[in-house]
Amino acid sequence: MTPRLTGMGRRGSYAKGLARRREILRTALEVIARSGYSSASVRELAEAVGLSQAGLLHHFGTKEELFIEVLRTRDEVDAGRAAEDEGGPGGLSADRFVEIIEHNAQVPGLVHLYTRLQAEAADASHAAHEYFRERQGRVRAELSRAVRAEQDAGRMRADLDPEATARTLMALADGLQAQWLYDPQVDMAGMIVRHLEALRP
Predict the structure, then answer these.
(1) Which of 84, 106, 113, 162 is the most buried (most CB within 10 A)?
(2) CA distance 185 to 47
(3) Which InterPro entries match (predicted)?
(4) Cα 1 from chain centre
(5) How far is 71 from 50, CA to CA, in rounded Å?
C-alpha cells in the first residue's frame, strides 16, 4: 500500500464521517422541531438515525455538543432559506427577521432548545457559551446593517442608533419567545412588526 493510497483512504473515511454527521444533525433538527426538545433524548435521536447512543455521541462527544451543533444547523438552514428568497448570500433584513420569528412559531421544540441553552450558557464555563457569544455578535451586526439600510431607504427614522436598535430587536425577540413558550397565543411576529412600524419616519 502506497502512502498516497493511505491518504486517500483517510480522506474517504473523513468525508464519510462528515456526511454521517450532517445526516445526524438534519435528522435531529427534524425530530426536535417535530417532537420537542424535552422528548428528544439521546436514545431517541440515536434510534432515529440507526445508531446506538455511544455511536451517536462518537460524532459529537457530549449531548451538549450535539445540541449546539443542532442549533448551528438551524442557523445554516435559516441562512440558506434567506439566500434562496433573496437570490444571493445577502444579510439579515428587517423583513427576513420577521419571517424567522414567524417560522419559529412552527418549531416549538427548537425554540425551547434555544431558550434553555441560551440561559444555561450565560455561565462562561458552559459548552454553549462561545456559540451564543459569537451568534449574538453576528446577529447584532447583521441587524445593525439592516437598520442602516432601512434608514438609507427612508423606511426607518434617521435619529435611531443602529446598534442600539439591533440590541432592542434581539431582546424583544428573545423575550417574546420566552413568553410564547408559556402562552402559544402570543403573536411574536405581529409584535415585532408593530415595533418596527413604530420606528418608521
Answers:
(1) 113
(2) 33
(3) BetI_C, Homeodomain-like_sf, HTH_TetR, Tet_transcr_reg_TetR-rel_C_sf
(4) 44
(5) 21
